[in-house]
Design a protein that fits this description.
heterodimer; A: 418 residues; alpha/beta; four-stranded mixed β-sheet; 15 helices; B: 310 residues; six-stranded mixed β-sheet; four-stranded antiparallel β-sheet; 10 helices
Chain lengths: 418, 310
C-alpha cells in the first residue's frame, strides 16, 4: 500500500474508533431532532391549551369588545371582585381581567390568576385593549366605523426569482436561515477539524515519534496524510449526521403524523415548505466542496503552526493572525447577509481565505454560475498554495525543539533548501 | 557499505557539518563519536534522507542515496517516542509497513520478535500503559523489524535500565554478527568502545579522526607502561638512565615495599629493555602497556586541533 495511504488510514481509524467520536456522532443528530421535537411538542401543546379570561370591566369601555382567538376565550362577569377571585381560585386555566373605572387613561388593570400568565397571553390582551381604546377614540373623534374597518390592511410580500427556466417561488426567510446555518456550520467545521490537525502535529512532535516516521516517509507525505485522514473523519461525521438526522426525523414524523397534518398553517410546517423553494442539492454539494477546500487551506496552515511550536499554549501567537480572515468572513456575514449582493461580500466570496464562509452566505440567494466556478477555482489554487507553503515550514519545524519561532523565522524556513 | 563524501550542511547561522567524509565497511560496528552539538545528528539525518546536504554525496552499497534505500536502513533516533494512544502491536505493524513491508510479513516478524523479547502480552496494550523502558524495547523492535542492512542507533542506551540495556546490547551484537552494519552515535565514548571496531570522531562540525579502533589506539600509544614490583627503589634505578626512561609516576601504597611505576620509554627503548633493567635489581610482579581510552584520544586530538587552529 502507498505510504501516504497508510498514514491516512491510521489517522482515520484512530480517530473514528475514539469513544468521543462515536458519542458525538450519535449525540448531535439526537440533540437536533430532540430539540425540534421539543419545540414542536411545546408549540402543539401550547396551541391546544385553552385559556379562559373573565373580564370584570368596571369602566364599561371594553364590555363585549374582546375577540376570541384560537386559544383564548373571553367571558364577561358582573359580580364583585372578591366573588370572582374566589370563583377562579380552583381553575388553573382561568384568568380574571379586572379593569377599574377610569376617566381618560386606564390604570390599575390587573390580570389575576392562580397560575402566572404567559407573555403570549399578556401581549394578546394588551394588544386588544389598545386597539379597542384607539377605535373608541377614533369614533369619538368623528371617524366612521366603515372607514375604520377599511384602515386595517394586511400585506404579504411573496418573492420570486427569475431564472432562465422561469420564475421560481422563493422565500427570503428560508434563504436567510439556510445561509446563516451553512455559514456557521462551515466556520465551525473548518475550525474543529483544522485544530485537530494542529493537535496531531504537536502530538507527533512532542512525543518525538516524528523523526522515526520521517525516516520512512517524506515530511509532506506525513502532513498530507494527516490532513486528508482528518478530512475523511470530518466527512464521515458530516454524512453520519445527515443520515442519522434524517432517520431520526423520520421516526419522529411517524409519531407525530396526526399532529403535523392537523398543524397545516403551523409555522414549523411553513418553514418546511419554504425550504422546498431552495436548491438544496446545490447547497449541499457546495457545502461539501467549500468545507473541504476551506479545511484543506486552513488545516495546512494549522499544521505549519503546529510544527513550529513545542506545545499547544505556544500556538496562540500564530493562531490569531492565521485565522483572522476566516473570523472576519464569519463575523461580517451577520451584517452582510441582509444584502447578499454587496460588493464586499462579492469579493469575500472570491478570495480563497474567506470564500468558504462568504460564498455559503450568498449561495441560498442565488449566485451566477461563473462566480461559483471562479470562486471554486481560486479556492483550489489557494489550498494548493497553502499546502505547498505549509509543507516547507512543516519539514523544518517538526525537527526544531526548544526554540520559540517567530513569523520572521517561519518566513525563512519557507525558503530553506531541504 | 556506507560512504559519506565531503558533506557540507549549513543552517542559518552555523555550520553543522564542515566537509565531513567517512567510510563504514560492510558488517562493521562503527562508532560515530563526539560531544553534544558536534554534528552527529545532522549527519545521521542526512544518511536517513530526512534532510539533504548542501554539498557532498552519500553512497550506500555504491549507489547514490535514494528513497528506495529507506527500507535498508533501521534508525533509532535520539529523541524517540511512540503514539501514546495506539496499541503496541498495531503501532509496530504501522511502523514496519511504513518501511515498505506487507501486512502479512510484518505481522509474522512482529510476533517473532515479541516472542523473543518476551513482549507477547503487550500486543493489545496501549503504549501509554507501558513503562519508559518497555517503550524503548518496543522502539528497538520497530527499528530492526524490517531486517535493515544498516542500523543507525543514536544514543541507543540512554533511558534503558541496566538489565534492558544489556538485553538490547546483546541483540545488537547478534545482528552485527549476522552481518548487519551498525553505526552507534554517542557522546558517551566509553559506552561503545568495547562494541565498535571502527570509529570516527567529530568535533565542531569537523571530523577529527577516523579509523579502526586498534589502529587509532596504537597510533596514540605513548610507549608508556605500568610496572608493579616488590621493592621501593625502582624509580631511582630508571631515573639513572634519563635518555631511555621517564618515570611519570611512582607510588608506594604499602610500607612492605610494593611499588607502582608509570614509565614512558624514550628513543626506541623496548619493553624488554625495561624488564632487563629492572629484573636484576628487584622482583617484577607485573607489567602492562598503558593503552589510551577513546576518551583520552578524543581529548588529546581535540586539543591538538585547537593548537593547530591557533
Amino acid at each position: 500500500m502507498n505510504k501516504t495511504m497508510l498514514i491516512i488510514t491510521r489517522e482515520y481509524l484512530t480517530r473514528v474508533r475514539k469513544k468521543s467520536f462515536i458519542i458525538l456522532t450519535i449525540l448531535v443528530p439526537l440533540l437536533i431532532v430532540g430539540m425540534y421535537a421539543a419545540i414542536f411538542m411545546f408549540a402543539m401543546a401550547g396551541a391546544k391549551e385553552m385559556r379562559h379570561v373573565i373580564v370584570l370591566d368596571e369602566s364599561n369601555v371594553f364590555a363585549q369588545r374582546f375577540n376570541d382567538t384560537d386559544n383564548i376565550r373571553f367571558t364577561y362577569a358582573e359580580g364583585s371582585l372578591e366573588s370572582e377571585k374566589e370563583a377562579i381560585l380552583k381553575q388553573e386555566d382561568h384568568f380574571l381581567l379586572h379593569i377599574a373605572p377610569f376617566d381618560d387613561v386606564p390604570r390599575d388593570i390587573e390580570l389575576i390568576s392562580p397560575k402566572q400568565a404567559g407573555m403570549n397571553l399578556i401581549e394578546r390582551i394588551d394588544g386588544q385593549m389598545e386597539n379597542i381604546l384607539r377605535d373608541k377614540r377614533l369614533v369619538e373623534a368623528g371617524i366612521d366605523t366603515a372607514v375604520l374597518n377599511s384602515l386595517n390592511v394586511e400585506v404579504s410580500l411573496h418573492t420570486s426569482r427569475l431564472t432562465e427556466e422561469g420564475e421560481a417561488r422563493t422565500s427570503a426567510g428560508a434563504s436567510y436561515g439556510v445561509a446563516l446555518t451553512a455559514c456557521i456550520l462551515i466556520y465551525m467545521f473548518i475550525f474543529l477539524y483544522g485544530v485537530q490537525v494542529m493537535r496531531g502535529v504537536i502530538e507527533e512532535k512532542t512525543s518525538r515519534i516524528v523523526e522515526v516516521i520521517i525516516s520512512s516517509v517524506k515530511p509532506h507525505q506525513l502532513m498530507l496524510g494527516k490532513i486528508l485522514g482528518i478530512a475523511l473523519v470530518g466527512l464521515t461525521q458530516f454524512l453520519l449526521w445527515i443520515v442519522l438526522t434524517l432517520a431520526a426525523t423520520g421516526i419522529v414524523k411517524t409519531f407525530f403524523t396526526g399532529e403535523i397534518a392537523a398543524g397545516a398553517g403551523n409555522p414549523a410546517v411553513e418553514v418546511l415548505n419554504a425550504l422546498g423553494t431552495i436548491n438544496i442539492p446545490l447547497i449541499l454539494v457546495c457545502f461539501i466542496f467549500y468545507f473541504l477546500g476551506g479545511y484543506l487551506l486552513y488545516s495546512a496552515l494549522f499544521a505549519a503552526v503546529g510544527s513550529a511550536v513545542d506545545n499547544e499554549t505556544e500556538t496562540q501567537q500564530f493562531m490569531f493572525p492565521v485565522t483572522l480572515p476566516l473570523l472576519f468572513a464569519y463575523i461580517s456575514s451577520f451584517g452582510l447577509i441582509t444584502n447578499p449582493d454587496s460588493p464586499l461580500l462579492f469579493w469575500l466570496s472570491l478570495i480563497p481565505f474567506t470564500s468558504p464562509v462568504s460564498m455559503m452566505v450568498r449561495l441560498p440567494f442565488g449566485v451566477p454560475a461563473w462566480q461559483i466556478i471562479l470562486s471554486m477555482a481560486l479556492l483550489v489554487g489557494g489550498f494548493a498554495f497553502t499546502v505547498w507553503a505549509a509543507a516547507r515550514i512543516y519539514r523544518t519545524g517538526i525537527l526544531m525543539y526548544g526554540k520559540k519561532a517567530s513569523f520572521r523565522e517561519l518566513g525563512k524556513w519557507l525558503f530553506y533548501r531541504r | 557499505m556506507l560512504s559519506v563524501r565531503n558533506i557540507l550542511k549549513q543552517y542559518a547561522n552555523h555550520i553543522a557539518l564542515d566537509h565531513v567524509s567517512l567510510e563504514v565497511e560492510e558488517g562493521s560496528s562503527f562508532g560515530l563519536l563526539g560531544p553534544n552539538n558536534a554534528g552527529k545528528t545532522s549527519l545521521i539525518r542526512i544518511i536517513n534522507q530526512i534532510t539533504a546536504p548542501d554539498e557532498g554525496e552519500v553512497f550506500l552499497n555504491g549507489e547514490r542515496l535514494q528513497p528506495a534505500h529507506i527500507s535498508m536502513i533501521g534508525y533509532l533516533p535520539e529523541e524517540r517516542g511512540l503514539y501514546k494512544k495506539m496499541e503496541v502491536g498495531e503501532h509496530v505493524l504501522y511502523l514496519a509497513r511504513l518501511k515498505g513491508m506487507s501486512r502479512h510479513e510484518a505481522t509474522e516478524r512482529v510476533r517473532g520478535w515479541f516472542r523473543k523479547m518476551e513482549m507477547e502480552s503487550w500486543w493489545k496494550k496501549k503504549v501509554e500503559e507501558l513503562s519508559k523502558g518497555m517503550q524503548q524495547k518496543v522502539q528497538f523492535v520497530a527499528t530492526v523489524l524490517h531486517e535493515p542492512r544498516l542500523l543507525i542507533l543514536d544514543e541507543p542506551f540512554t533511558g534503558f535500565d541496566p538489565v534492558n540495556a544489556d538485553i538490547i546490547k546483546q541483540e545488537i551484537l547478534e545482528l552485527n554478527r549476522k552481518g548487519t552494519s551498525v553505526i552507534f552515535s554517542t557522546h558517551r565514548m566509553e559506552s561503545v568502545e568495547e562494541m565498535c571496531d571502527s570509529i570516527a570522531l567529530i568535533n565542531k562540525a569537523k571530523k577529527v579522526l577516523e579509523g579502526k579502533v586498534q589502529d587509532i589506539k596504537s597510533q596514540y600509544r605513548s610507549n608508556t607502561y605500568e610496572v608493579r614490583c616488590a621493592g621501593t627503589n625502582g624509580a631511582a634505578i630508571l631515573n639513572s638512565q634519563p635518555n631511555k626512561f621517564r618515570v611519570l609516576s611512582d607510588e608506594t601504597p604499602r610500607p612492605d615495599g610494593e611499588e607502582y611505576l608509570k614509565v614512558q620509554l624514550l628513543n626506541g627503548t623496548t619493553s624488554n629493555e625495561l624488564l632487563q633493567t629492572l629484573i636484576p635489581e628487584m622482583e617484577v610482579q607485573g607489567m602492562q602497556e598503558v593503552i589510551p581510552s577513546i576518551h583520552d584520544i578524543f581529548v588529546r586530538s581535540v586539543k591538538e586541533e585547537s593548537v593547530t587552529e591557533a
